[in-house]
Each structure stands twice: as structure tokens, then as C-alpha cells.
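Justification of resources, computational component.

The compute hours requested in this renewal are based largely on the per-chain cost of generating structure records like the one below. Each record pairs the submitted sequence with a full C-alpha cell output. That output is archived, and it is also reused by downstream analysis tasks.
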Amino acid sequence: MDLNQENRDKDQPRSSILYKYIDINGAIMMLYYSNLQFTNATKLNDPFDCHPALIDFTNVPPEKSKGWGKELIEELVSHRHQRYREKNWVCCLSKAFDSLLMWSYYNNHKGVCIGLNIEKVVEYLNSSLGMMVSNSGHEVQYCDIIEKPDYFKSQADLFYYQMCTKGKAWEHEKEVRMFIYDPSPRCMSLLPDQNDEDGAIDEKEVRAFPKIGGECFECIYLSANIKEQDKGEIITLARKLNPDIKIYQMEINPNAFRLDTRQL
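The structure output for this chain reads:
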């Protein structure tokens, strides 16, 4: 698994601003604590996401199976990629702030979309946060059919193929991802509604929340149906965090199925 970014210019997002769609409670926590949320790859909302089944491990060359057996070699290499999924925490961002679908199923048009300056964010995401940190955005690739690369023949970086390949149905998300592999306990935290009263909590349910600086928060878009009370709280928190932050109100365009913006 190679997380060295020096030769990954093609994976860099074209814009330095990426967007996080989030509900009101999540936005309040994000602005108050000035952090980013990373979720375990097994807990994303697409069951195919980051799954090792995206890769073909079955074509074991004869020279690699001598003394071990084809089935054992296949099991060993596929298990490695299963572990990649289980030990990897993902931050999902978008290149778009005005997607009707994203506003609908992430916030029901009542939340916010936070614009982050990724060039500033990366200064805070370093190797102290985990075993490996991929702090530059990797664009998700979308496809109609799973054309599985051959593990034993492919020249592709199969870690990133596994972590950044999704079905065409998700293409509207225009997603860009960052990763923390095996995050440090110091940046891990339970969500507000989680507790261990009923027993131990699965470590995969725990999120990573690395802290970033207020200058990373470039702009905020308030949803078209945001409640006035929520709007006031978000604006107050945002301007306290970064006095120079730009704040926009999303508005329904009366003549087209799109959202317009008005700077506040």
C-alpha cells in the first residue's frame, strides 16, 4: 500500500475548495470543535464501497502456488485487502455545493454545506494521526460494470482502486476522498449519541476527528429550508471560527430545477 503523494498529481482535485454536506447537529459540532470526520470504510452507506470484491484474486499464477495451493494464496491476498477496508477511515467530500440530490438526502434541504480549503487542510493531516495518512484528495471513479483488475497482473495501485471506485449511480456526488489508515487513538471519538452502557462499542463505529484550523473553513452554504434558529447559530459559530468566512444562502430558482446562491 503506497500512500506517497509525490507522484499523484493526477489525483489532486482541480479546485482547492471541497465541500462537506452535513446536517445541523453535525455542522455545529464540526464548527465548534474545528475538525473533520473520518468514517470507517465498512460503515459507508454503499455496501459495495471499498469492498475487496472489486478485485479479482482468483488467477493465482502456478509459480506462486507451489507448496501452498491456489486456494490458500487467494485467501491470503484477499484477506489483506479486507483488512485494508477494515482499518481504513475515510473523509468524503464533494466538488459540488449545489447538487439537489446531495442537499436532499444528506440534509433534506435543512442543513449546510461547508467549503474547505484543502491546501490549508492538508497542513493539519500528518503522519501523527495514524499509521498512514493520505491527505490529498483522491477523486472517486464511477463505472457501470465492475471490470475487476487481476490482482496478479494489474499495474494499477489496487489500494486506491478499491477505495475510490463506485457505481455510476453515485456519480452525482462528484466525490473526493482522504484517508487515515489505522488512526491514532488520540483523534478517535464517539458520536454524541453513542455510549457503552450496553457493552463494548465496535471500534469501526468510532469516528476519527482530526482537528484543523479555522482558516481551513473557506465558506458555508445554508440550505434553502434551514430554520431561522439554526441559521443564526451556524452563522455565529462560523464567524467566530473564521471572521473572514464567506456565508451564502441557497435559494430555490423559480424558473429552473436548480439552486441559486446569495451572499450574506
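The chain is about 25% helix and 25% strand. The helical segments are 24-33, 62-65, 70-86, 100-107, 118-121, 158-163, 228-241.
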